[in-house]
Every structure is written in structure tokens, then in C-alpha cells.
Protein 1
Amino acid sequence: MDKKEITKEDTYKPVKYKILKRVLHHRTLLLGIFILLVAIFAALFPQVICSYDPLDILDTQGIRSPSSQYLLGLDNLGRDIFSRTIYGARASILVALGAVSVALIIGVTLGLISGYVGGWFDNLICRLLDSILAFPILLFAIMILAFLGGSATNLVFTIGLIYMPYFARLARGSTLSVKKREFVEASKAIGSSNLRIILRTIFPNILVPITVQASIALGVSMLVEANLSFLGLGVQPPTPSWGRMILESAIYIRVNPWYMLAPGICIFLTILAFNLVGDGLRDVIDPKLLL
Amino acid sequence: MAKFIFRRILQFIPIILLSTVLVFTIVRLTPGDPVEVQFGPRASDARYAESIESYRRELGLEKPIIIQYFLWLKNVVQGDFGESIRSQQPVLDLILEKLPATLELLFAGILIGLIFGIPFAIIAGLNKGSLIDSSVSIISVSGLAIPGFWLGMILLWIFALKLKWLPASGHVPFFEDPVENLKRLIMPAITLGVYEIALVTRFLRAEIVEVVQTDYIRFARVKGLSGRVVIGRHILKNAMLSLVTIIALEIGYLLGGVVVVEQVFGWPGIGWLAYQAITNRDYPIIQAIVVLIAVGYALTNLIADILYGYLDPRMRIGAKSL
């Protein structure tokens, strides 16, 4: 009997290829990714898009309507609105990324340990997390920044610490579910240390829900940052930030509505993109794929 | 049921106490002497020396930090949140004066969220995968992405400045002049309501889709029950249970959102009061508003939990393990 030659097509396709195929067929996810790529490009290379420095005073007369020279006009201090809008992406996106990173690192660590260890430690952590969750996010952030003062660093740590309980609860819930699985029992049976079990066995298996939540968290963090900047508690001038630009534009709406519209459209599109990516990832990373 | 309520209340108390510890700690973490920070430039003015000294004794700043916390907590429980640094008025009186306007706005925001959100969710949930479902999803996702303050400013620009249909700011009590009250209420209520519509649509639609896929709905259809009966008696009745949780979620968002929306529209509620306090560094007011809102929010969640337990016996049985 002739032996059939085994070709590459006969082998089992890894889960990541299935996920990639689903991503490429998910229209709203692709739209979200596209918008985010544009926003990140604007944040990293604004000088490629803009003709003017966002801090340069181009006309001492102040506010100007859009013209052939200044695409969206000038703000109250004579600075180019288009340049400030593009440069504003940096502050907003970096604060959101920084805040979610802080929330992820602290939250997931706490949640993993709390879920794995259990007992009185788990109860204590849960009560502490609940006490933070008792405050609406924005209100708590307003209170902390009212006392500490607005700055990019304070924003990152404030939003990060306030959002941390959401990741902690998610990580804890996922850990409680995963630690009952047979492969964790097997790791314990062969004498693996607790640290090894947490890092090498449990952590990779809770990454999926955390990734989805991280994307949604980026949208929430950006919305909170925009609100705080609008209240004067965000990134301080003269650094451009979208929320602050909307605050400053309030009395000039009649003269140049683009001063208010441009940063608002950017905030809306970027948060929409984060939400689309989060929802899309949730659809695409089906837990059944990983069984 | 009584045991369920008692268990929930037992969980509520430590959360509130820990929240007060958080607020107290954040205030004490403020760089510099808290009294001098609160008095600002007046701290070095000899005319305020006696007030500063008396305030320092009142706060018990020379005592250990734990004693200071219990002194502060004792005052808070008795309704004494101190006095406004700016106006010297009792903080609680200022808050109670502004509270009705905020409650009016919150109620209007929730109402708009439910009036539009529930029908959108039902239509989308019962027609999953259709063009209607996609359209509603787009509206819902977009609604969650619009910054409230920006939407408020757009509404002001169009309806107050360009068309001059509605007044730009201010508040007239409803019982004084209902028409003027509604004219001033509509824009801030819509600003808050848009996010609420998106929240309600998103969560209720997901709940309806989940209920539609259950075995008992499949059985109801197999039994030959009419579509109207299946939808009305079984699907919606079960899905609406989640409205209790959704409204509690709504209130959480609204309590943060009012600070911004009241500022945009000059609506004289506690959100507006909080913003003025932030600008003027009037810390007793900020502290008091945050503590009261945290207690209010926790109480809302407690009531939602208890109500959910009353409406859905499975929650009470499941909660025994908590």
C-alpha cells in the first residue's frame, strides 16, 4: 500500500489563523482599527500632517475663521486650530494608554493573586475594590485631581487607579474559573511553585477577556480625560488637548465654530474606534475557538 | 427575603466606611498643610489668623490621624460637613439648596434614556442580525462615544445661538413656570439622555437576545403560542428584569456627568456647585459632595440588588452562597 504524503494543508491550523481570518471579515472591527491607526499616526508624526507649530502665535489679532492659509482658522491666541487639533491627539491618546497600562498592571496582578490565594486576603481585596467602585469614575477623578492638581502624570495615575478595580475583578473572576481546570491541578501535582502556576498556567488563560476589556477601557479613559480637560483638570496649557480646546472655544462659537467642532469630532471618532475594536474583539475571540 | 436584605445591608456598610476612609485619605494627601491649602493666599493674611487657628483645632490636626478620621466621621454622620471657605455658609445647607435642580435633571435624563432606549432595544433584540439591528447598534455605539459637554455645546450653538428657539442657560422651578422650566431643561436633559439611550439600548438588547435563545422560549414557540404572547409574556418579562440593574448603572454615569453638563448650561445644581468649589479650592464642599454622592450611588445599587432579588427569586437563592 502506498503511503499518503502528509502535506501542510493536512495539519491542524492554529487558533491564531482562525482569529485572523475572522478579524479580516469583521467590518466594524477593521473600521475601528483603521481609525486608530490614523489617530496613532497623528499622535506620533503630527509634523508630517501639520504646517504650523501648535504653540506658534501666527496672528496677534487672535481668533480667525477658516481660510486658504489656515484650514480651520486660528484660536483666541492666534494659534493654528488644525495643528493644535492634530497635536492634541498625543496628549489624549498617551494619557489613555498610560492610564490603562497602570490599571492593567496593578489590577490584573491584584486580581490574579486574590483569585488564586482566596480566603481572608481575597475578601479584603474585594471589599477594598468595592469601596473604589462605590464612586462613579468621573466624579472620583474630579475629586482627586481637584486636590492634587491637573497634569498628565496625575491624570494617568488617577484614571489608572480608579479603573484598576474593573481589571482586578475581571482577572479575579477569570482566575477563579481557570484555577479549577485540570491543567492547573496537573501543574500543582508535578510540584510547580505557586508563582509558576500563576504566571505560566493561569495568566495566559485569562488574557482573552482582559484584552477585550482593555480596548473598552481605552475608550472610557479617553472620555474621562476629555471631561477632565474640559473642567480644567487635565493636561495644562499651552500643551494642546482636545477637551481643553473645547473649553476655550466656548465664547468663540459664533466667530469660528470649528474651534469647538474639530477637537470634538476627533474625540468622538477615537472613542468610537476603541469601542468598535473592543466589541469586534469580543465577537472574534470566541472562547469555543480556544477549546 | 429578610435574610437576603440583611446580607446585602451587611455588605453595604463596610463599603461605605471604606469609601469615607478613601475620601479622607485623599484630602490628607493634598500637598502642604491642609488648612493653609484650603485658605490659599489668605493663609498669610493676619486678619484670618484666628479663623485659621480655630479651623485647625476643629479639624483636630494636632491629633493622631486615626483620631482625626473618627472626629471627621462623627461630624459627617451628624450632617456637619463644615463650612464653605468662600461663603462661610454650612456646606450641607448649600448642597440641599442645589439638590432639587440636580434631581430634576437626573430624572429627565433617565426618562429620556428609558423612553427611547427601551423601544430601540426591543426592536433590535427581536430582529438580531437585521438591518434594523445594525442601525440601532451603530446609534448605540456612537452614543457612547459622544462627549456630553461637546454635545451640549453643539445643542447650545444650534438651538440657543443660531435658531434662538431655547434659552442658553438658567433654571426656573417647575411650579413657578412649567413652560420656562421645560424650555431650559430640554437641552441639558438631552445631553445627559443621549448616553443613557446608548447604555439602555446596548444592555437591554443583549439581554433580550440572550432570553430569545433560551430553551423555555423555544418551548413556548413549539407549543404554538402566538408571537405576541411569546414576546410579551415571556421574552420581555424576563429581559425587563435587567432594567433594574441598567437604571442603577445609568445613575452612576449621571452622577459624574451632571458636573460637566450643569457647567455647560449654567444649571444651578450640585454639579455646578462642585465645579465652582473646584475653581475656588473650596475643599469642604468638594469633600461633602463626593461623600454624599458615593453614599447615594451605593444606596442605589443596594436598592437595585434588593429589588432584583424580590423580582427574581433565583437571585435570592444564588445569593445564599455570598
Note: Chain B has 14 helices and no strands.
Protein 2
Amino acid sequence: MARVVVDVMLKPEILDPQGKAVQGALPRLGFEGIRDVRQGKRFELEVDGELTEQRLAEVCEIAEKLLSNPVIEDFTVHTDGADG
Amino acid sequence: MKVGVVTFPGSLDDVDARRAVVLAGHEAVALWHGDHDLRGVDAVILPGGFSYGDYLRCGAISRFSPVMTEVVAAAERGLPVLGICNGFQVLCESHLLPGALIRNNHQKFVCRDQRLRVENNGTPWTSSYDGGAEITVVLKNGEGSYVADEATLDMLEAEGRVVVRYLDVNPNGSLRDIAGISNERGNVVGLMPHPEHAVEDLCGPGTDGLGFFTSLLAPVG
């Protein structure tokens, strides 16, 4: 079994009000000097069997079709075998 | 006409939409998200609410429900489809409409009586209105900020596909004050405000919203 991680982030040009809210809370907690916060999503997919090129291509398709909305989000896929 | 209103798990405004359909003189047909057929309806409404709890992204899970396969196919054949609020989000996620809806720029849920201008009365959902008509209906959303790239926005404007636009204030940060758009053919319309909440004098800001439902009977100009 292998673990594949998909990270989804809003595209840089898309406003991220949630990230802004988090950033706004930092000075109130005494943390200074954080210029910007962007909030994203992390998906951990447990894949049966060996992680072949074909399986990885499938995960990319899942990321593109369901996990992200390509109109507003970018995604990256990476493997995380150490925890598998 | 027979107008289907889809109920997803988490839909809130399906009953109001069916009521508006009946007040406009149509027969309302309740459709379930798990249905594999549209029961011979002449038009479909995707109502407001929080389908599938807005999990993942608003409308992202609903898009893959069995009934949406039928709705997408029928829309591509020209069936009139109206998406209100969450329904608009579902239409964008289904790629029946371009762009996407993201969290309001001010981070708060907004609920207000909203003035709008009907920019395009050539769709099956807006033909009851005069071109440029100014109407007031309810607006309530947390993720209603319409975004698309510049090229898409220019195309929507050039092709007259901005169907309704916010007046007075932009309630959520939508680009170019866009409140609702149509597909290229004009049969699929999505908007964030709720015309189905403005169909009776007893509640809501008046009856300005009724036109969206009576339009189905009017000839498209």
C-alpha cells in the first residue's frame, strides 16, 4: 500500500478570505511579521497495491476532476511512501 | 409546463422553488438527487441550500449525483435549467457555466434584500422582464463571489451572457458586479440571489422574483 498526497491551493490571483482572516488573527495573538497566509487543502490517498505510473496518473485525474476545481485552484501530487 | 426541482441532501430552498413554480402557473415535479431520469419535465431548477454540506467545495459532490448526469445531458440538448445560489455553484462545478463561486470577500455570510438589473431578458428564465428591469429579491450566501479569468469575463459581457447584475452594492466581491450568467445557448442560467423568495407579498421584499418562473410560458425574445 502506498500513500499519495494531493495538495490543493487557490490560484495566486484568487482572493483567499479565509487566509486573510487567519493572518488578521496573528497580531492579536502576539505573532508579528507574517506578511501573508494562504489556506489550502491536503488529501491523503491510500492506494492499494504497487504505485505504478498508471496508478499515479489515475490519482492526477482524481485531483483534476474532483479534488480541485481547475478554474480557481492548482494542485500538486506527491508520494509519501515512508508512512505507507 | 412541468418543472422539476431537484432535492439534494442538504438542499434548503427546494420547497420554496416548487411553490414559486406553482404560483407561476406550472406543475412542480420533485426530483431526487439519486434519480436516473427527469420524469419528462420541461425545465429543471437546482435550488439553494448546502448540498452535501458544502463538503470539498460548494456543489462539487452534487455534480456527480445520478440526477446531474441527466441534467447535464438534457441541458446540452437545450432543456431550460435554472440554478439558484447553491444551484448556481452546482452548474459551475458541472461546467455547464463558466467560472466559479468563492467565499465572500468580506468573509461573512450576507442576507439582504438586493437590487438587481436584468441585463438579458432573452433567456427562457428572464423573458417576462423588460430589458434593463430593476428588481429586488433576497440574497443570502457565504460563498457567492463570482470569479472567472479576464478573457471569460470579457466573453460573457460581449455575448450578453451576464443575465443579472448587482445594483447599489456589490454584496460579496463578485467580479464586475455579476449576479447571474447564462451558457452560450441561453437555456442554462445561474444566479446567486433567490427569486423564489420574492414571489408573494406576505413574505420577502415583494414579488419581483416571480418573473423567473413565469418567463417559461413567455416567448423568448
Note: Residues 66-76 of chain B form the longest helix (11 residues).
